[in-house]
Each structure stands twice: as structure tokens, then as C-alpha cells.
Amino acid sequence: MATRTARRLNMHVQGWLLVLPAVVLLAAFTHVPVVETFIGSIFSTPQAGHPAHFIGIQRYGDMAADPIFWQALTNNLLYALITVPVSIGLALAMAIWVSGRIPGRALLRLAFFMPTILPMIAAANIWLFFYTPGYGLLDQVAHLFGFGSTNWLGDTSTALPSLMAVTIWKESGFFMIFFLAALQQVPPDLYEAARIENATRWQVFARITWPLVMPTTLFVAINALINAFRIVDQVIAMTGGGPNNATSLLLFYIYQVAFSFWDTGYAAALSTVLLIVLAVVALGQFFLLDRRIHYR
Amino acid sequence: MKRLTTAFLGAALATSVFAAPAWAATEISFYYPIAVGGPITKIVDGYVKKFEEENPDIVVKPVYTGSYQDSIVKAMTAARAGNAPDAAVLLSTDMFTLIDAGMIVPYDQIATSDADKAWLSSFYPAFMANSEANGHTWGVPFQRSTIVQYYNKEAFKKAGLDPDKAPSTWDELVADGKKLTVKDGSGNMTQWGLEIPSSGFPYWLFQALAIQNGADLANQNGTKVYFNDPKVVEAATFFKDLSAKYDIMPKGIIDWGTAPKDFFQGKTAIMWTTTGNLTNVRKNAPFEFGVAPMPAKVQGGSPTGGGNIYIFKTDNKDKQEAALKFARFLTSKERAADWGIATGYIATRADAWDTPAMAAYVKDFPAAAVARDQLKDAKAELSTHDNQRVTKALDDALQAILTSDEKAQAALDKAQQQATAILRRYQE
Fold first, then answer.
1. How far apart, in whole angstroms, are the C-alpha atoms of residue A252 and residue A255?
2. What is the ipTM of this complex?
3. Min CA distance, A147 vs chain B (Å)?
């Protein structure tokens, strides 16, 4: 009896020891900072001669009254709502195209994947040239067709969509790889059966391909959604959040509050909100959507 | 045995040779805002080397910290971690941020000898305006600039204007701008009259308009702003009218980086930008260009801009002493002249312009002196407590005015309200 308890205990100790490195890393670089961020958000920002003191949830009230926070949040939601479905649609379309037997398939795949290889800052600079009013690529093309110049990044109504285009361009190639892998997994006999039944292309897609790549779609959607809330580099490189906060996204605003305004306490409160948003997205994946997806 | 002795001797000798600087020298770190590599780093490295030759007991470790924004982040983060730089070049407008964080020492407390005092009073007063607050001197000017007009003389000739006379009043600016704005057959603009960049920090160029209209944006102690003063509102309305009413400037936000390119490409005949661009324009403009002071409404003038040298707090008096020595070295008249010639920044003291090198340079390139001559009309750049937050309120208002139908009065009222709320706690 005693030996069995000892053995079980031994097994537990062994198990914990095995996960210890991962636990330590996760705790040190994820969990402890999360807790510290929250604590930072309920204390005042220390300044020379004024050490931090407890202020409770006052900051969250300030946040509710901060128009730039609401604008950043709305921008971010729009960003997610538009870039995620569009890049998934494009990725799937490209994957279906390049999974067929067509000449130059490898080259085509490479071409689609290329934007993913570029660092974001490099890509942002290329697009800065595209968007330059007057002689940027887009305006040069527009001139050919007799249109005038557009100040893509300098107008509040076009700046955010212009940034979205960069994200879609960059991400769909990456997601295409996942869909390509998923398409290889679809059993060919289903397609043969469909051919025998004389199904239309649309029916094949709607009844076979789409349901069977659903797990991949979900995985990609969650990743794209999380990415949409983590975007900061192209905002810094292309617009600096302007004009008039039209392209300010949550993470960029946090950066600005923390390292331009040096209001680390408020930045901590904003980070806490961002974390909650991301946690809700992740929970959505685990508890709601997971059960509705067709797995074989 | 003999061999062993030799070895010992050799080792001892080597130690004394190589270790000597390590224990005798005071090592100071110096943050400088530029990306690593490139021609500017070489100049700074050269200054450091020369300084170390003159002061063998001091070792300077230059740290190249990227953009101004990156540099203040790095300096403040390092200081909070107890590892502050000893000296740093940061924006002159970062002064209140650094004071409020309690990170810098005022020069008047450490530079106390007569020679030191003479040195502190050798700079142009327009530059010192951004160094002084609450009765102390917190920074010394190093790489400073003002805004000037660059104009394309060929475009002026083509439009039938005198190529040696840039617009000197707002009315002339509008009149010349209309002549310089050219459309092609289908009504598309091929050349604009004027570009005033408005991305990132539009407040700086806007401040030039405000000054010309006789307005101040803030008080000297950085505790009050006057964003919705009628003169400021009028200046903002004019800024908007340049594109909306007179149609001589592109609509929307004009990017800082794009404006010089537009100028080189002949897409704009006049651009307003920093004198720091002088060397760039001289190298890249494929046509004859002119540099002119800002036009006047009720007066001429421009805000100053650019970076000051700050000395950070430390308990080590030797380091502070060495940092002060280095700051004095970098701002001596010879260095100020050399730096101005190499970069296009304005040499920060009058006697630098009398050095033979500078005199020769100005003779060959008279445009270099335009910014200096404009200094008599220059004012302090907008700088307040919680500076970046306050200027952002103004930046947002200006961009709203430029890109939407929002009226200048309404937008600036809002900015004034935000800035007043931010500054309330500094008005004891």
C-alpha cells in the first residue's frame, strides 16, 4: 500500500519535473508579466518625487472616456472584420488554383508565398512607394487611365483601407500554405464520386472541399484574428497612426502611451484590455467553434 | 628560470600597457540619435577620437540610438534601470519630460567656472530658449535647425517670376503659388506651388505660420498653451486654405519624406522644411534652387528645432565632470562650424561663423547663411510638460482640419481643452 502511494507520488514528481522547463519559461515570460501588467494598471505611474500609489480601477473609467482608445478599438475591429475573411477567401482561392495540375505550378506557388518571406518593414516601404501621391505605382497606373492623384495614406477615409491591403497581401500567401496542405488531405474518391454524379464545380466546392477544409479554416481564422490585434510595425512604418488617429490600432496606441507619453500605468490598463480581447478570441476557439466543426 | 622571469616581466609589462587606460580613465557613455553606419556616425566617431586624444584620461563610448523617438525611449529606459547615459543628444523639446522624470542635471549647477559661464552664454539666444525653464539651463544646443523655404528657380523663371526673390509675405506666397501651380490638358496637377509637410508632427511647420501671425503656442515654463488663440485659429485656417481655397498645395496629409522627393522631381516649386535638409537638397536637386527665409504675415519667423546635449544625473562626480568636458568640446566654435558644414544644421554660436572654414563655406554657398540670418526672428519650439501628449492634441487637431471639413475653431478648441486638462497638474 505504502509502496504504491510512494510510486504514484514518484510519478507525479517525475511528471512535474518533465514539464518544469516549459512551466518556468511560460511563467517567467508570459504569466508573471500578465499579472504585473494588471497590477501596474491599478497603481499610479511613478514620477520623480511621486512614487506609485494605489488608485484602483480609476484608469478603466478614464479609458471609457478616452476617444482615441475607442477609435483605436473600432479601427482594430474593422481591421479584423475585413482583413480576416478577405485573406482567408483569397488564400483558399489561390490554394485551389495552385493545387490543380497547371503548368508553372511551383513558380506560381512561390509567387503567392513571396510576400510572406519579406520582413514587414521592407514590405511597408515597398507599399509606401506604391501609395506615394503623384508618382507612386498606383497613381502611375491611374494616370494611364486618365485618373488624377490620390493621397492614399494622407486622407482619413483611405488610410486604414490602404493598410488593410498590405496585411491582406502579406497574409494570404501564408495562409495558402495551410489550405494547400488541407486540400491534399481530402480523399480523391469523393471528387470521383462527385464527377460520376455530374456535380457542378460549385456543388463540389460547397459540399466537399469547404466542409473538409473547415478545421484548417478555423485554425487560420483564429490566427488571423489574433494577428489583426497584434499589428504594429506597418502602422509605425507607414502612417504613425495618422492622419488624426485614422490608422491608430490598439497595440500602436499602447506603444504611444507607454513610450511617447511615458504613462506606463495607462499603457498597462490598455494592455490588460487587449489581453482580455485576445483571451476571448482564444476561448471562442476552444469552447464554441470547436464543437461545430466537422472532423473526420 | 630565466625564461620564467622573462615571461613574468613580459606579462607584467603587458598588463601595465593594456590595463593602464582601464583603471586610470573615466569612461562615459554618449547616446547619439542616428542609425549605426553611414557618414554621420563617422563624423561623430571622429569627434570622439579627437576628444580622447586631447583628454587621455577620458574614454567616450558613443552609442548610436536610432531616431529621436528611439533615443529618448532608450535613454529613459536605461536611466530607469539605473544605467543612464552620461550625456545624450535628444530633442530640445524632450526637456520637460527629462526634468519631470528627474533624470538630468542643469548646466548652471555643474558649469560654474568663469570659462564655463562664458561658454554657456556663447550660443544664439533663439536656441537657448528651448534650454531654459524655471531659472535653470537644462541643455546646450548641438544640432539645431529652423524651417526655411526651398524653391525651384527654374520653375520660377518658367512662371515669369523673379528667380532671386522668393515670396516674403503670405499674400505673395499665395500669388506666386497660383502662378507656379500647373495643370495638364486633362486638368490633372503636374506641378504644385507649395508643399508644407503635415505627417507625423505637423505642429512644427504649423508653428511657423502661427509665429508669422504673431502668436505664441505656449509659455516659457511649459505649463500653458494657447491653441485656440484667434491668431492661431487664423493661421490654421490659412494652412487649410492653401489647399482648399487657393488650390496651390496638395490636399490631405503631405509626408515628410515625400516632400523633398516631390521637390527634386519638380512636383512642387516651393517646399517648407528643415534646414537639416540643406545638404540633401544641394546633392539631389537637378536644377538651380534657392533658399529663403520664411514669409511674413505680421512678422517673419520660424520655430527652432533639433537636438540638445543633456547631462544625466549620476553620483560619480568624475563622470559628470567628463561629460561636461565632452559637451564643451562638441560645442566649441571649431566643432560647431565643422558640424554645420558637414550636415546643414545651423552652427549654434556666432563666433563659429567667423572661423575660416565657415567663412569659406558661406562664400561658396550663401544659402547656408539664410537660416542663421533668420534666427533673429526665431522662437522656441513648442515644448511643455507631458510634451508628446500635448503636442499630439495639436497634431490631431491640425490633421483633422487638413483632412476633413472640421472648422479650425472647433478643432483647436478641442485641442486646447485636452491640453489644459493634461497640464492642470503642473500649474501649482
1. 5
2. 0.81
3. 8
